[in-house]
Amino acid sequence: xxxxxxVKSFGPIHALRGVSLAVARSEFVTITGPSGSGKSTLLGxxxxxxxxxxxxxxxxxxxxxxxxxxxxxxxxxxxxxxxxNLLLPYLSAQSNVEAAxxxxxxxxxxxxxxxIELLTEVGxxxxxxxxxxxxxxxxxxxxxxxxALANDPQLLLADEPTxxxxxxxxxxxxxxLSSVRERRGMTLIVVSHDDAVAARADRVVQLVDGRVLRS
Length: 215
Ligand SMILES: Nc1ncnc2c1ncn2[C@@H]1O[C@H](COP(=O)(O)OP(=O)(O)O)[C@@H](O)[C@H]1O
Ligand SMILES: [Mg+2]
Fold this sequence. Notes:
It contains 7 helices and 10 strands.
């Protein structure tokens, strides 16, 4: 994953003022920095939720597509985990994971089988039938992770994944993220204020005021 000279403004606000960053395949990088320093903006540009004003971003050797044309990219190349897990509240854990597979055209039988495999991978095979309100914060985050993994992304982007969890659940969520990344060999970029997250990463990149301070 390569970010080169990326600039992004929202009207008068200069969210990113020329950011360059290279993350190797299978590397685990944490992005830290004060609130408002541009972390989420950068993650969103890498995942094609939005596009840079200037500069280029490549993922797995390919330029990140324009958000308008990014359906396949967002389904198969990158996976997202957010602070708020954004699960569908009236669907079971299994159906939440299946929804991601449905979107990419996987048939019913395979959806069922794969969603159970994914829930097993995140340690939730026994909670497949529970709706989000019946799960703990950490368990909900694990379902969100299973959903993000559904289409086997090469790059997983996580924006403050432990931000809404107490420290014990945060540790578990972090163990889970690291073990999944090791098993799958995928690249992992985690935005976090949490020192425990930074301690696990191969490298910490600090953003301050829309610029990389340290990488
Ligand atoms: N969609 C948006 N519209 C206007 N301003 C935005 C938008 N997204 C982010 N910003 C602004 O850009 C700056 C960087 O925001 P953000 O990337 O969310 O920072 P961080 O994730 O580090 O807290 C902030 O000043 C924020 O208010
Ligand atoms: Mg943010």
